[in-house]
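Example record

One chain of 578 residues, shown exactly as stored in the release files.
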Amino acid sequence: MLLATSSAHGDTYTPGSKVDQDFKKFAKSFLETHCLDCHSATDPEGNLSLADLGPVNEVNAAVWKSVWAQVTLKEMPPQDVADVGVVERLQFSDWIVSELQRVMRDKGGFQANLDPDKGNFVDHDLLFESLPADIKLMPTSSPSRIWRVTPQEHMTRLNALINQEPEFNAEKPGLRTQGDFVPTNHGGELKIYFGTDRIIKWQGGTVAYATAVKSTPAILSSPRAHGLENYSDFSTVNSAEATQVFGVAGDIIRYMARGPLSIAKPYQITDDPKSIEDKMKGDLRGLPTSIVYSTKVMRPLTPISALFEVSEFSDEELREAIRFLFEALCFRPPSELEEDGYFKMVEQTIEKLGKEEGLVLGLSSVFLDRDALFRPELVQKGKADRYGRVMLQDWELGLAVNHALRYLQPDDQLRQSIMDGRMRTKADVKREVERMLADDSVRKPRVLRFFRDYFDYDLAGYICKDTKALGETGAAAGTSHYRAMFDGTASTDRLIELILDEDKDVLKQLLTTNKVVASRGDNIYFGQRRTREEEKASVAKEKKEAAELAARQAAEKEAWLKANPGKKPPKPPKKKRS
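Predicted structure tokens for this chain:
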């Protein structure tokens, strides 16, 4: 074999390299030597004959995929009956991959070798043991790629456009502030809400309120329920999701422009609910018209809202709005080409639909920009090192660093570093990461997200509780424990922050600590303190029940003695310990 000859002459092989060999001289020889004894044309094992298998093409690609999987997993040829060298097996596997990628390039491609779920396809002996002398590894690198944003990231970006959050207060570090992720509601749903900071009155209870308030649920989906295993599957935005994004975009643009006027009747916006009592008659529970909004402006005022407040605006004012919206959604400024493209699009929609609807439709298109839904790592510029690797730089590197810690846009210092060309080296990364980690005013919710995904403690609210049994302990009746469980997620977040702040044996502390952060909501699990009257009534009830039991037992004993004269009555059964 050529491989053995190469190795004998001191050559080395780097796994993953392109194998510059053809089928006849290389692959066919491997099949004949190691496979055809069992998979010949006559009575082949597994009913799979490889005798007539030719060069990789569209027709036989499925067979070659199966061969690749079996060879890579070292299932075939069996190690106990075949003398296949490590390098020989790796080269044959890499040759199949390169051929499948070539043949399937225009047919959906071949990417099974890159699937994170295929971790077992990596040779674990090579991964954890000493490498053979004839294998030389390339320095580590990642392929160019784009990451789809997670549902939480996407919702946080949208929420920042319509809701203002308080600035960070070092004296109250556990409170939600600007830059934190959008929390789930008490039903465990991830939603953003419109205008809740201006609601001063509504009809009905919690359910009616939740139904009446305008909201939108998470749009981007995940094929798996939760946890770190999600991330390998964040790759696409399907047509249904794109349609929903576009629809929600229109609602957000309108709210940015008009506030509650975009979702309510004008009379619902008043600081004096009594003045509109004649319009709020009847059972309006759960209806949007059951809500009263204050006149105070609470939403972020942006260049978008400025466009809707005037009858005419300049080209520069429109461009400023486009730049603002693009960076709010994509986390970077638009290029000149991108800005011009959206400018022309908005001009066209205004011409066809009029100013207001044209603005809504044209600006909504920015929500579907690639970088509003994906974070690219395409390294389209930069100088390759001697191994062909190109380091991320500028916005791609800056956003990768930002993504590791935050859900919102880069802060001013990181943004300026990117703009100044100071995000291109490892030293640049170290400088910015250390700065942000040391600055408590820079919110870092992705750190908590990691621990949520690792421990799954934010799933506690979905755990079914025995409401009846909980009520019998003296704890609050009803379903308030569900709310307490979701509130407990925030308490656990705070506990983790405290442990991280100590920065001592973090993982050990997280796994073994007996500390808790408790809130008032946790009181429902500890029952309620009874009044003296309740205690007296409880004692009297117990005494009465004991007296009735004693009288009943005495009567039963007397009846037994009459029925069994001269006999000794049986002893009463012992009480079982609970």
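Notes: The chain has six domains: 2-138, 142-300, 303-378, 385-445, 456-526, 530-578.
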